[in-house]
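User: Second chain of the day. Same drill as before.
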Amino acid sequence: MTIQDRLAIRVKCAEHSVFMRSDFADIADYDQVGRGLRNMVREGLLMKIGHGLYVRTRVNSITGKLMPDNIRGALGVLLEALKRLGIEYQFDEASQKYYDGKSTQIPANHIVIPKNPRVSRKIAIGRCVLANSQQLDAVKLVPIHTKLTTCVFRDDPASDFGMSRPPISVSSGH
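Assistant: Same format as last time:
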């Protein structure tokens, strides 16, 4: 059985959907695992969401495109990745009220804020991104125009991830 086969079996049989490169350290050395994971990304079995972070994929039955294999969607993948990395987080006030049962209004955007302001890791699931959240009060929120509306950008990470978005038009309402 090749290293590639062992990596594929581990990914397919795992209960969780987010994988770290270190999860495969017992199979082969660092470089071999990296090559195997890169091949699995090319084959469509995994999707890279950050440095050393991967998510298992499946084919969307409607669009036919690859998507994260997590029943909670992009937000679920983001939260699982943060949990696996040991990064504590909190939700914005509106989301927290909804989750606590104090509000019945479903938030349009679930904002995930790392508790440690020094977190500089970037995690991207499609166009849903957790970017550096230093100086939370001073950073503008940039809405995203996509079907995955579970996250809000902090700063404008589009340039970092090679994404483009339609220009934002502002009307005065007169």
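Strands lie at 18-20, 46-50, 53-59, 66-68, 89-91, 112-114, 123-125, 128-130, 141-142, 153-154.

User: Great, on to the next one.
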